[in-house]
């Protein structure tokens, strides 16, 4: 029995050192992975360009001259034909009387 006891006492430090080295390796690996995947606002990672899709088209409002038809009052809506041939709804501005011309954004 004393031989087993002596062997156990001799083996425990070696076992402890192996466990300590394994724990240190796990801590080091976790720390290096944390650095790799943690985002830093001062140095952001850019994997792709900012604009990956097609450039959005901005529609510019076009102006048309509209003659106010009879029996229409300010504030009412009219359907007018836009420059591209499409139908657009415009509102008669305040102070415009039938027969007067006004500019509408379509």
Quick summary:
With 106 residues, the protein is α+β, with helices and mostly antiparallel strands.
Structure in words:
There is one protein chain. This protein has 106 residues and is an alpha+beta fold. The chain has one helix at 2-37, and strands spanning 63-67, 77-81, 87-91, 101-105. It folds into two domains: 1-42; 63-105, no CATH class. It has one helix and four strands, in the order αββββ. The strands form two sheets. A two-stranded antiparallel sheet has the order 1-4. The chain has a two-stranded antiparallel sheet with strand order 2-3. Strand 2 and strand 3 form a beta hairpin.
User: What's the arrangement of strands in the largest beta sheet?
Assistant: 1-4
Q: Roughly how many Å apart are the termini?
A: 101 Å
Class of secondary structure makeup: alpha+beta
Instruction: Name the beta content range.
Output: 15-25%
The whole-angstrom Rg is 40 Å
What's the structural domain tally? 2
Low-confidence stretches: none
User: What overall geometry do the principal axes of the alpha carbons give?
Assistant: rod-shaped
Number of strands: 4
- How do the SSEs run, as a string of H and E? HEEEE
State the helical fraction: 25-40%
The main sheet comes to: 2 strands, antiparallel
Compute the average pLDDT.
Answer: 78
Our count of helices gives 1
């Amino acid at each position: 029995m004393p031989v087993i006891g002596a062997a156990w006492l001799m083996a425990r430090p070696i076992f402890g050192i192996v466990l300590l080295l394994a724990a240190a390796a796990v801590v080091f690996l976790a720390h290096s992975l944390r650095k790799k995947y943690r985002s830093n606002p001062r140095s952001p990672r850019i994997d792709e360009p900012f604009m990956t899709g097609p450039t959005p088209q901005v529609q510019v409002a076009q102006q048309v001259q509209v003659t106010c038809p009879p029996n229409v009052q300010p504030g009412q809506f009219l359907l007018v034909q836009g420059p591209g041939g499409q139908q657009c709804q415009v509102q008669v501005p305040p102070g415009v009387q039938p027969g007067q011309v006004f500019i509408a954004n379509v």
